[in-house]
Structures are given as structure tokens and as C-alpha cells.
Amino acid sequence: MNVKSDTKERFTVITPQEASLSVIMTEELRNLLLPYLQKDIPHIVLNLSAVSRIDPEAATVIAGIQQEFYAANQSCVLCCLQPDVEKVFGAADLLDTMNITPSESEAWDIVQMEEIEREFLRDE
């Protein structure tokens, strides 16, 4: 799978460069993303702007990856979903359970707010 990555101060933006994501490709995505949980900058923004089609099973796998990040107390936010991709997530009833934003800058805000929230809860 061809992806573009851009490491920022507090997170990494991963942008798949594929127009279509199949369930087979999401396994590659899982193998790419999960090692970030062990890195100094573990938070991920998954920018799906180039993806115009996604298999329902792939959407479910991505939701599972996002939950693995949250279970490890790290952030994983999806952004820039194309309308057809958003429909697949909606049909699978995943939109309400996932952190999805319309733009990359809003995803950055979510990651930063979650980081502040974790620090606040850790201090209590």
C-alpha cells in the first residue's frame, strides 16, 4: 500500500494514496499503524482524502485499529472522508463510535485535546 506520512510535533499524519481500500489492504495498514503505539510520537491522524471507495470489512478493521489505539491510551483520528466512504462507515454504524473529523486541522485539534485530557486525568 502506498502511503504518505508526515510527522508533526505530537502526532503523525498517515495518508493512504490508494483510491480504494480493500480488507486485504487494511491488514497492511494495521501493520503500518500499530507499531506507532511503541514510538515516542504514538498518536495518528489517518487522512482518507484520497480514498474514494472502501469495503465494509475494511471500515470495520479500521474501526478496530482505532479502538486499539484508544485502549492503549493513544489517539487515532480519521479525517477527510469522501462521501461514499462516509456512507460505508455509516451503514456499518461506525460513525457514532469513532473519532472522525471533516478536516485534517480538526483532527489535529482532537488529538491535542485528548492529550490534554489524558494529562489532566493522570494528574487527578
Adjacency order of strands in the biggest sheet: 1-2-4-6-7
Query: CATH top level?
Result: Alpha Beta
Tally the structural domains: 1
Architecture, CATH level 2? 2-Layer Sandwich
Q: Could you name the CATH topology?
A: Transcription Regulator spoIIAA
Main pleated-sheet profile:
5 strands, mixed
Instruction: Give the helix proportion (percent range).
Output: 40-55%
What portion of the residues fall into strands of 2 or more residues?
Answer: 15-25%
* Apparent shape: globular
* Unreliable residue stretches: none
Q: What is the H level of CATH, i.e. the homologous superfamily?
A: STAS domain
What distance separates the N and C termini?
A: 42 Å
Strand-pairing-aware structural class? alpha/beta
Secondary structure: number of strands:
7
Mean pLDDT: 94
Determine the number of helices (DSSP H or I, runs of at least 4 residues): 4
Produce a short descriptive summary.
The protein is α/β, with parallel strands linked by helices and 124 residues long. It has one domain: 2-Layer Sandwich (Transcription Regulator spoIIAA), CATH 3.30.750.24. A five-stranded mixed sheet has the order 1-2-4-6-7. Strands 3-5 form a two-stranded parallel sheet.
Features of this protein?
alpha/beta; Transcription Regulator spoIIAA; 124 residues
Molecular structure report:
This protein is an alpha/beta fold and 124 residues long. The chain has a single domain (3-123), classed as 2-Layer Sandwich (Transcription Regulator spoIIAA). The protein contains 4 helices and 7 strands, in the order βββαββαβαβα. β6, α3 (83-91) and β7 form a beta-alpha-beta unit. α1 runs parallel beside α2 (56-71). The mean pLDDT is 94.
